[in-house]
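During the reporting period, we have paired protein sequences with backbone structure tokens. One record among many follows, to show the layout:
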Amino acid sequence: MANDPLRHPDLVRLSRKLRNQFDEVLEAEQHAAEAVRKRSSHLRDRLLEAEDRGETAVVSGSDGQIYRGRVTTVGVDHLVLDDGGERFLALDHIVSASFKD
């Protein structure tokens, strides 16, 4: 159809521009997700070792709090510290961790 308003040249250019921007954002998000996955898997591996050794962890959370306790459980996406009670922490919210025997 020659009179199709959706085939206006300005709309075609805008559509291409938006699609290119979407592709760029999607690629950046995929790279960011992969980086987070890599960091999380390394942290989780170290936490599993700490659990096996019965080590005490000092964990800094994204909320600015510092948590300290013996590593008792490491799940797929969480950590449990024994600090006189059980404290559950999501692995995604851990900023840093150090370990002591």
Q: What stands out?
A: The radius of gyration is 23 Å. The mean pLDDT is 90. The chain has one helix and five strands.
